[in-house]
Amino acid sequence: MTSQTVRLSAMVTGAVPVPAGIVTFFDGGNSIGAATIDSAGIAYLDTALLAAGVHTLSAEFQGYTQYGFNTTTQYVAAIFSPSTSLSVTVTVTSIPTVTSLVASSSSTTAGTVVTFTAQVNSNAGTPFGGSTFYDGSVLLGTLSLDAGRASFSTASLATGSHSITATFDANGPFAESTSAPISISVLAAPATTIATLVSLAPEANPSNNSSSLVANVSASKGAPAGIVTFLDSGTILGTAVTNQSGSATLRVGTLGSGFHSLTASFAGGSEFAPSASPALYDQWPETGPGFTVTLGARTLSVTSAGSQSLQISIEPLSAFRQQVQLSCAVGLPEGHDCTFSPGTLNGGGVSTLTIHPIATNAQGSSRIAPLYGLTFGVLSFALLGSLTRRSRGLFLLVICCSLGLLSGCGTASSPIDYTQKLVLTIRAESGTGPQMIVQSTQVTLIMPSTK
User: Fold this and answer.
1) 160 has which bridge partners?
2) Structural domains in the chain?
3) pLDDT tens for residues 192-208?
4) N or C: where does the chain have the smaller number of CB atoms within 10 Å of the terminal CB?
């Protein structure tokens, strides 16, 4: 049975008793351990790591040279050559399990929370370990079983059809099993509702070693009011109601070490559509999060010339003194770049973020076009004196039309300005490998667009 301890023993014999040496045990071609023979020439190995299935086991004595001494020098008394045992076949069984899966809804609106619950059963006790959830072949996440059950929640499924499965990861004496797939449809919000946007920002309180999650819900018009659900790696942390400014705050106490995927879902209402924030990815070792990240504002205005300045404060915790690198992770508007000044902070400090458009050839051409128009106009009027009165009128009409086309100021109507909102994720990183610290936060960008 898997996870049960099996004792393997190998006896080494020769023409005379073998006094010492090491025996290595193999499962097929893989070494599973070694042991020293005792005074009876027997080596023992206890293992509980044999997986379910058929195993071909063998033992190999590595040989041994026995030395002796005469009155003056050391000499070789005996040489025991290496040897290998015959193979022994061992079958390891496991307890069968059955995994079933249900969804909180078979049809949901994009941005709202849906929960998938896996139940793992067996005929010989309650399985323990973890259950992994998949959207087709895409990994959603893994959660620990509690009394054989695990519930994974998400608000980040894209519109369309999804096939969800849950797998029990073989553990102890219990065998792996996979649920039958369930189908779920994610629908777009009704066209009659106003689209919303959610950004998420952690806020730390070093004085009592606690933290909060703040979600900012905005729309093109009006003030969205409703319930915000906060999630961490598939687990619902809690809910909060938006205030008059569209913010919802949830106190989460102290988050543990490891990896966190944080999101916030606005449930929507009769007037406003639901939506979910992009995921925030945080991680830190057991020594702690190292530092906090605080934004000077939750929104940042971006114009065609560039953005306002946004201050980002890095506050060290405890004895943290490492370098922190800042970057724009996701959500940067197309055709724009971001700059941090400075881009690296030693232990802590304040950096300033600005977003600016990337220069293109089209922008250069638009600046050069008026110069072409002016040159063409000067040359044309120089020729005007040599024409007859009737020809002058026709020539003036041609000049005016040409200047209008070159300067872009013809009869075409001016573009209409609209406002679009985007969520920009800002990442602060320090260290590498197991000691790497990643802290993220989000800001809502308000920028003009043309339609």
Assistant:
1) 186
2) 6-92 (2.60.40), 97-187 (2.60.40.10), 200-277 (2.60.40), 288-451 (2.60.40)
3) 999 999 999 998 876 66
4) C
